[in-house]
């Protein structure tokens, strides 16, 4: 069950990172979705998607 919830949170963060209207920082998203730190989010996100949240946001937005 914990893995499922973690995947759901990561998926929601991924969607937020893709949204050009989303103004929250990675740190704010980390806190909003229950990660203990930005580093914890970054590690989990990289394991799931192969990129850091910052790199994913940049590629999704074409920067």
Automatic annotation (TrEMBL):
<keyword id="KW-0805">Transcription regulation</keyword>
<feature type="domain" description="HTH araC/xylS-type">
    <location>
        <begin position="1"/>
        <end position="59"/>
    </location>
</feature>
<dbReference type="InterPro" id="IPR018060">
    <property type="entry name" value="HTH_AraC"/>
</dbReference>
<keyword id="KW-0238">DNA-binding</keyword>
<dbReference type="InterPro" id="IPR009057">
    <property type="entry name" value="Homeodomain-like_sf"/>
</dbReference>
<dbReference type="InterPro" id="IPR018062">
    <property type="entry name" value="HTH_AraC-typ_CS"/>
</dbReference>
<keyword id="KW-0804">Transcription</keyword>
<dbReference type="Pfam" id="PF12833">
    <property type="entry name" value="HTH_18"/>
</dbReference>
<dbReference type="InterPro" id="IPR020449">
    <property type="entry name" value="Tscrpt_reg_AraC-type_HTH"/>
</dbReference>
<protein>
    <submittedName>
        <fullName>Helix-turn-helix domain-containing protein</fullName>
    </submittedName>
</protein>
<dbReference type="InterPro" id="IPR050959">
    <property type="entry name" value="MarA-like"/>
</dbReference>
